[in-house]
Design a protein that fits this description.
Blueprint: E1 13-18, E2 21-26, H1 27-31, E3 35-40, H2 47-66, E4 71-76, H3 80-89, E5 95-99, H4 104-108, E6 112-114, E7 122-124, E8 127-132, E9 135-141, H5 152-158
Parallel strand pairs: 3-4, 4-5
Antiparallel strand pairs: 1-2, 3-8, 6-7, 8-9
Helix pairs in contact: 2-5
Catalytic activity: a hydroperoxide + 2 glutathione = an alcohol + glutathione disulfide + H2O
GO molecular function, one term: thioredoxin peroxidase activity
InterPro entries: PRX5-like (IPR037944), Redoxin (IPR013740), Thioredoxin-like_sf (IPR036249), Thioredoxin_domain (IPR013766)
Length: about 160
Amino acid sequence: MTIKTGDKIPSLTLKTMGKEGPEDITTDSIFSSKKVVLFAVPGAFTPGCSMTHLPGFVVNADKIKAKGVDTIACLSVNDAFVMGAWGKDQNADEILMLADGNAEFTKACGLEMDGSGFGMGIRCKRMAMIVDDGVVSHFAIEPPGGIVETSAEKMLELL
């Protein structure tokens, strides 16, 4: 079942790239007592994700945070090394780059997509959500090829 507005974010551990290497980060620490904009992409360094989706959040990070958002987070079914390198490549200093390497968060939220035809295996569907104190207050999922309902500009409209 796909996560929806009103649902609580599942409690589990993701990875992020720290100064010494990959570090654990819990969803509870990310979302509890905070307003978070979380968006997910099918893959780091892929064209739509690198040319449109992540850059929109990088450019609009200050505007989004000015609307009371504590954290902007980008999630992908990639490892922490890839997410860290992608964040650096995209100058995403204001974005928390989350690695869901085993697709545990993706599966817990019912957001799996089969990218096997592209040699990518199981990935996360392109989505975005606004989360208030661990509860989803807005959720959008894109149809294949779209980056409209999950864009930074759309999140700004909704905040």
